Amino acid sequence: MSSASPLPVVALTLGDPAGIGPELIAKLLARPDAAMHANIVLIGDPWLWEEGQRLAHVSVEVEPIASLADARHRPSTQRPAFIAIDTVEQAQVVIGQARAAGGRSVLQVLDRCMDATLAGHVDAIVFAPLNKHAMKLGGLTHEDELHHFAEYLGVKHYFCEFNTLGDLWTARISSHVPLKEAAAYVNVDRIVQASELIYRSLLDNGVESPKVAIAAFNPHGGDGGVCGREEIDVIAPAVRELQARAWPTDTPFHGPFPADTIFLKAQSGEYQAIVTMYHDQGQIAIKLMGFSRGVTVQGGLPVPITTPAHGTAYDIAGLGRADVGATWQAFQIACRMGAAHRRSIEAVRA
Length: 350
Fold this sequence. Notes:
Radius of gyration: 20 Å
CATH class of the largest domain: Alpha Beta
Distance between the termini: 26 Å
Largest sheet: 12 strands, mixed
CATH superfamily of the largest domain: Isopropylmalate Dehydrogenase
Helix content: 25-40%
């Protein structure tokens, strides 16, 4: 009899039923090398999974299981597992439209994954693109899915969203807040915590000696105080505090650097991560460099959670034209970080 799979358990969701998520997951699981990286468990509505395969022009053999509690100990197999859950009727979904029924569906599936996380049944989660407006129509009470995850999982420490493009990762110390309020978030604690979190996450992702650059807040890095003092009073002291600590690798933190040139240093390979001071400071650069390949990583949660950064693409939903590249990247990151998570849990138990 086959032994249980040694691979990390990675849960996949189909995302917003009106978007490109089902098609993307079908294309992902049709890749013959997908099952080499993880013990994959897909969770979703059977009709939606069939629709995703139809749009992707693929047929993927899956193994039905009852719950994520069964995933860890199933025999090694090249087939993904599938948990059927009824969350939305096909008649309630209009392709390309954000609706409450779709938002409720997304929340139900994600919460099922959160319950499995709390029970220790999964090592990582990849969710196909969702729509925040639909989720709020469907009952989401938080500003975004990250804050929903954090509260559901009882996270009390610092957490933030990472945006990645290939070998370059970015973190930000403020996210979905009005720009006029961003300065209030520029403080030493948030900079230190965001920098440490992205550094340790890169280690979990297999980067041996990550270098992290910290961005300035003001134009030209403040110009010695002429354009603002956040660099002098807050950001530089945060960098010094980081540099004074002991780390697994040599001097990983540097800055502050003017935001209009910092990505040039990263593009040349000098840095593997950039900590930015507000949402668009990093997002504009990352999306300009490779919109269709970007991945969002939910940092600071009990297990790694990833998703393609491009969104539901309602304009091409149902047309069979979705590019699986970013979803494949999100899956690979989840597999690497999920394996690191599993090793750390097993080391504690040993």
